[in-house]
User: What shape does this take?
Amino acid sequence: MGILNDDAVLIEPGKNSGDPTMVTVNCPDESGLGSTLCRIILEFGLSITKADFSTDGRWCYIVFWVSPDNGSSRFDWDSLKNRLLSACPSCLGSYYSSLQSSNVSKPPSLYLLKFFCRDRKGLLHDVTKVLTELEFTIQRVKVTTTPDGRVLDMFFITDAMDLLHTKQRQTKTCDHLTAVLGEHGVSCEIELAGPELESLQRFSALPPEAADELFGSDVTSISNKVVLTVDNHLSPAHTLLHINCIDQKGLFYDILRTSKDCDVHIAYGRFSSKVKGYRNLDLFVRGTDGKKIADPKHKDSFCSRLKEEISCPLRVIIVNRGPDSELLVANPVELSGKGRPRVFYDVTLALKSLGICIFSAEIGRHSTSDRQWEVYRFLLEERREFPLDRARNQIVDRVTKTLMGW
Assistant: This one.
């Protein structure tokens, strides 16, 4: 049996102003679908206030209650619906159906957006905000500032609409950037990122000392904020996981992506509303063999990884780079190869709020012994009114709180 396309995703506004919007997804199931849906919601800058989750391996039914992170009453719910529909197997929205079928076996095209303009405070975040609102995903970035106060930004981006090859989409993108930065003299170019541009995407290797501090830190003390209880007796067919933890941005996404990467299938779940800053979650799970998670090694490794991913989904430090200060932010990469949504957006927002200018920025990948990380590097400008050596803790704290939604 099938269902009508429009019935696969239903969006119902809250009854009163400020109430969360209810998003219902009812479609055939596939591995990792819940994680994909949470990722899309996070990409749109929405917070999941609560959720109910049910799947039998063939059909998936999820209800999300969501609210915009910035509390804005203006939001493009139609775009969200189209993106969610595009992720539903056999339930493609008419807008995305043709491009989904043509792109099943190939990754999205990578484009280079290059612009040159006069520098100012908050410039990088303002550009990132425009690209995010236009549904672009930033894959790589190279930002450099010239001695005469101009900035050359190169964004390697993919387009969720898969329309950036058209002149209309390119013109619209440059027009939006010019509208925000027009008085600063914008020169904007967009081209397909072919092999000849590979050298521009290279990521500077992290110094060993910085890598040790960023990836070698002990997160055990942080993990104590997460209480995880495993019960193999309550249900005859599933293992029950009960999680109590501090609420944070992307929490449900972190749980679902970790479960997917650890080959744990969530059959039923309830993501309750937060109480005094804490969340309670009940998840009925099983392994890929359809049975309870009874093997002690699998259970212990999954619980350990889940605790770590919930308590420390991102890492933020400041290190010396010669005489300058460099902000480093890292997050784990999914096994699918995807990084975490909106990290660049949130970091540039935090730095803008502190009045800190960014001299250069990069996004790249770094591999450790057991996983791959996405790393964001920001070389910060020293300002007389805001000495960086005295404000390092303040910067790390502001960036961390912005990323975690605290």
Q: What stands out?
A: Residues 127 and 177 are 7 Å apart (CA to CA). Residues 296-311 form the longest helix (16 residues). Confidence is low (pLDDT under 50) at residues 91-105.
